[in-house]
Design a protein that fits this description.
By secondary structure, the protein is mainly alpha-helical. It has one domain: Methane Monooxygenase Hydroxylase, Chain G, domain 1, CATH 1.20.58. It is built from five helices and no strands. The longest helix has 22 residues.
Length: 109
């Protein structure tokens, strides 16, 4: 991150966007490690940058803000109820398996 930040230039919005992408990557690694505080900090900083770059005339900048908001939400959801996303995904898997028939249903044991 130190290198990416060192290369950024406030006069060049793309370089700031690059920093926000790197922060998202850091947030993803920290989230995968279970370090929700560090993930939240990285995603939050990315969101601040992206909000600063947002321009209603440039849809990509608005999309970037929406992606950051979603990632902040993932961390908040995980912090409130660890495992809730996993349970939701398992439920989706069970529903799809049932639609395929009894032979494809997961074994509850």
């Amino acid at each position: 991150m130190r290198i990416r930040r060192g290369l950024s230039d406030p006069q060049q919005p793309q370089t700031l966007r690059d920093v926000s992408i790197s922060l998202d990557n850091v947030g993803g690694v920290e989230k995968a490690r279970g370090n929700l505080d560090a993930a939240s900090a990285a995603y939050g900083e990315s969101l601040r940058i992206r909000r600063g770059l947002s321009d209603p005339q440039q849809p990509q900048t608005l999309r970037d803000v929406s992606v950051s908001l979603e990632r902040v939400g993932w961390v908040e959801e995980g912090a409130r109820e660890p495992g809730c996303r996993l349970r939701r995904l398992w439920g989706e898997f069970e529903n799809r398996s049932r639609a395929l028939g009894p032979a494809a249903a997961p074994d509850p044991a």
